[in-house]
Each structure stands twice: as C-alpha cells, then as structure tokens.
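Intended use. Records like the one below are meant for learning the mapping from a protein sequence to its folded structure. Do not use them to infer anything beyond what is encoded.
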Amino acid sequence: MSHAKVDPAAIRVQHVFHHFAATPVLNDVCLEVPKGTIMALLGPSGCGKSTLLKLLAGLLHPDAGQLFFGEQKVVDGRFSLPPEKRDLGMVFQDYALWPHMTVAQNVAFPLHMRGVRVSERQRRTLEALDRVGLADFGPRRPSELSGGQQQRVALARAIVAEPQILLFDEPLSNLDRNLRESLCEEMAVLLRQLGTTAVYVTHDPHEAEALAHGIARMEGGAIKRIDWLDISRVSPFVA
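Structure written out for the chain above:
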C-alpha cells in the first residue's frame, strides 16, 4: 500500500533549553508550526516568548536542542545557520527603520542584500508598499511618518523578499489601542493572503486570537498548551 507523503512542519523546535547566566529562560521547549500557518506565542513578560523568537531568528543560540525550517537543520549543538541564510523576515517592536534612508530604500534593502537587479527591486518594493497601503510614500523619510505608518513600512520590508518565514516581536505594542486594533486586522488579512508561515509574539490575547491560527501559551519558559483557532488552515501534519 502506498502512502501520501506528508510535508514536514515549516518550523520544528525540539527540546530547546536556554539560560541567561544562571537563570533558565527556556526549559525543554518543543513546537511544530505547519506550513502556511500563523502561530502566536502568548504569555506575560519574562515567560520566554521573545527569547524563543530570537533563537528562531538566529540572534541567540540555545544551550541545547535543535531547530529545523522544513527539512533544513538550522541549529544543532554548536552549529547555527547565520540569520541572513535562514530566509526569513522580521518585524520588530521599535520598527528598526534606518532614518537616513527613504521609505523605498528601507523596504528595498533585503533585495539589495540579495543582489536583485535595480528594476526588479523597484517593482517589488512598490508592490510591497502597495500591499500595506503606502504606495505613494516611497520618497519620504521614516521621521515624516506616524507610528502606524512606520510599522507598515517595517512590514513591507519583511515581506518584500518573499521569505519562507516571518517573525514578529510584539510589533504593535508601541501603538495606541485603536490603531493597534485596526492594524492588527489589516495584518491578519495580509498574512492570510500571503500564506507565509509566521510566528507572532504578543502578550495580548485579543491580538493573538485576531491574527493566529494557533496560540502557544507560554509560562515559566515552557509551552503549557497550544490552542488551534482555525483548524481548516492547519496542515494534516498536525494531529
């Protein structure tokens, strides 16, 4: 009897431990994120969710454990694939835009680093800005934009290179409540349109429920449980 091949999870975290000095931050974390789904890491400050995201991004290295993106081993023992080779985009809490660059230059930067030719960079940059509602803002500087607009620029920069994985580190926490809610809805629509696998860190349960297909609830450096909210979008890989 033949069996259909089941694709591996887009992200696999296997028995990851991490300490800061003598303080344990992550304790035997295991997580699988199916391809094309959005997983929220939800929990209070200090629970380890941002540390886990930084391990996925390659900004930190775990004390023990393995990380896989699809079938590619990203971390194992002393081996750690550099961040620039992980094919991911990241959106930070503080936008992390370069003030000396225009909006278009900020968005185009990942393409520039990949050696994409100028005409293609311009096309894809405009397309990414259009997706976030800022098609006419390319010539401006980040300082000329509101907080919500700057976060849209950061999102455009994260998606412009069409990475296999998107990482979000509490990207809306610096915005006021009304703006946070409206931008959260826009991001949910965009991420579902893109179909990109994403991990989204937040301490706000309403934000997690509005955006994610699944919520990994973290406490004391461990994932206590995972709740699937939109089972129709979850791969058969997950039982």
